[in-house]
Amino acid sequence: MQESIQKLVNEGKMLPLMEEFYTIQGEGYHKGTAAYFIRIGGCDVGCHWCDVKESWNADLHPPTATEKIVQNATKYSDVVVVTGGEPLTWDMTLLTKELKNRNAKTHIETSGAYPLTGEWDWICLSPKKVKLPEEAIYNEAHELKCIVYNKNDFKFAEEQAAKVSEDCILYLQPEWSVREKMIPLIVDYVMNNPKWKVSLQTHKYLNIP
Fold this sequence. Notes:
This protein is an alpha/beta fold. The chain has helices at residues 3-10, 66-73, 93-101, 152-161, 179-192, 202-205; strands at residues 14-24, 34-40, 63-65, 79-84, 105-110, 122-125, 143-148, 169-174, 196-198. The chain has a nine-stranded mixed beta sheet with strand order 3-1-2-4-5-6-7-8-9. α2 (66-73) packs parallel to α3 (93-101). The chain is globular and about 55 Å long. The two termini are 30 Å apart.
């Protein structure tokens, strides 16, 4: 990458854009809501079950002017979800400032593995064992979404739930490839521990992006 472009990326004036699309939010608290998604490339968390591994290498995704990303997003919706990859790999300050200047509601889906930047109306924290969240983000999270791949993930979820604020909404979501095996266990767990809610990837059931 050219040094001048890399400087703009480091400053958040350009971002490695993997894809952007208008769709229905499929997961968590805002499921069923129309939203514009901005998927930013770059992630070194490395979840083995990740369903967007093509997002990991930021070099594969062209640096795009943040201003252009904002213009595209706000043509379609006043709810903009920034996801990845791991979007907090990059400085989100300018992106969220410009989105909010256009009266957009800013949502982020993050592992919390990097310091929180940007101004967010909704933070969905989805922590991963391999690279734990920065401590500061726990109190900022509106929603904690723990992915359940095996039985050990219930223990991890409880450890993470102990760190968020009392107002944070707690979700358990089956990893898609093992959903048939894990959904009954999650249902039983939530019935016995009703502070939790079940989250499903409803967009996959609806066959939409």
